[in-house]
Design a protein that fits this description.
- The structure is a single chain.
- By secondary structure, the protein is an alpha+beta fold.
- It is 17% helix and 43% strand.
- Helix 1 runs antiparallel to helix 2 and helix 5 packs antiparallel against helix 6.
- The radius of gyration is 25 Å and the shape is elongated.
């Protein structure tokens, strides 16, 4: 096999392949990429056995063929080269990499392509299209809220993807917080609800353009995503996703409005002194003022006051600051709203211990539910 490729174009595709590959051992076929040179097109495939990646770029092929090479080492060689054309020559079990503009040669060992896992074809799969910007926004608003506890609650380690009537929804929860986004008026075919692993969603979020559409298919136990010259597919997570609608609080009687930038900056400063085991901070709310308090630890304490729009009885709540700061990153409004009920009304203040609804102001198509900590 022999072909010539553009170094910059190849690096772009190999970088995505590196995101997919998790096994970095050079003796494992899953650390390799499959390279197929046919009909003027170079097809590149990578997999970690659950997530699969395919892409193609035009190259100048002198001799067709296929092989697999160690992805990380190939990327290291490419990264060291200047921009320009590079020759790829395979002979027996060896691959030679030769940049046209430099008197440099690198030789890699290859493994035969028949050892590479079969990835199948998506030619007859019924894809539907979603606006790329919308799909990426849905991922951004939910992916951080999945559970990190993979053994006991694997069904919470992915993002729930569902279509009901003409509403497309993504939901993620770890049992202590929930993030949900709804896109109304989506004209796509129905599909079976799916729990989508975060790895494929991260790849889409990082590599898809905001322009145009993304093609998606949910078939049997897999999800497929296509855009530009790239295709991802992944096995879905099995299990029953919780009835998330039951935990969304309703008929909330108290609301406070905060400037998003003020809140982010204050949390960044006060959380420095928080106990990183529980990440607890206190919200002390009075008329026109929110005091954010990091309770005293062996290292000290911190507090800061910022203005808020609220007029009423004093309020106290204990929160995991990570559950506030992570959704704040994706809120695109000037102000943020916290809605809740004062479920424990004492003489001097209201203590909040039930679910809090956090959302942009004005209300958008996404929201976040946070469970307070014990004070």
């Amino acid at each position: 096999m022999k072909f010539t490729f553009d170094r910059d174009a190849m690096i772009k595709e190999i970088a995505i392949a590196q995101e997919v590959i998790t096994n970095k051992s050079p003796i494992s076929i899953l650390s390799n990429i499959l390279i197929i040179a046919e009909h003027g097109i170079l097809t590149i495939k990578a997999t970690d056995s659950t997530l699969k990646f395919t892409t193609s770029i035009p190259v100048d092929i002198t001799e067709e063929g296929r092989t697999t090479i160690f992805c990380d080492k190939f990327m290291s060689i490419l990264s060291s080269l200047p921009s320009g054309d590079v020759e790829f020559i395979q002979e027996d079990i060896g691959v030679t990499i030769k940049p046209i503009a430099k008197r440099f040669t690198a030789k890699l060992k290859s493994q035969t392509s028949d050892k590479f896992p079969e990835q199948g074809s998506s030619d007859n799969i019924p894809f539907f299209e979603i606006v790329a910007k919308d799909f990426k926004e849905m991922i951004k608003q939910t992916i951080f809220a999945v559970s990190k506890e993979s053994r006991s609650r694997s069904f919470m380690t992915g993002v729930y993807f569902i279509k009901e009537n003409d509403i497309l929804t993504m939901v993620a929860t770890d049992g202590r917080r929930l993030s949900c986004v709804n896109k109304d008026g989506v004209n796509i075919p129905d599909f079976q609800p799916a729990i989508v692993p975060t790895k494929i969603l991260s790849c889409v979020l990082k590599n898809a353009s905001d322009e145009g559409n993304i093609q998606v298919a949910v078939v049997d136990k897999s999800i497929f995503v296509k855009f530009a010259n790239v295709e991802f597919s992944s096995t879905l997570i099995e299990g029953q996703f919780p009835n998330y609608k039951k935990v969304i609080p309703e008929n909330l009687s108290i609301s406070i409005q905060l400037n998003k930038n003020d809140l982010e900056a204050a949390l960044k400063r006060t959380s420095i002194m928080a106990d990183k085991e529980i990440n607890k901070i206190l919200f002390k709310i009075s008329s026109g003022v929110l005091k954010i308090v990091s309770p005293e630890t062996d290292n000290g304490a911190a507090e800061e006051e910022i203005p808020c729009r609220y007029d009423g009885k004093d309020i106290s709540m204990a929160l995991n600051f990570v559950y506030v700061t992570e959704p704040l990153k994706g809120i695109d409004s000037e102000n943020v709203i916290f809605d809740f009920n004062g479920d424990e009304d004492f003489d001097d203040e209201i203590v909040v211990s039930k679910a809090i609804l956090m959302h942009p102001d004005p209300q958008g198509d996404y929201f976040h539910v946070i469970m307070p900590l014990k004070g």
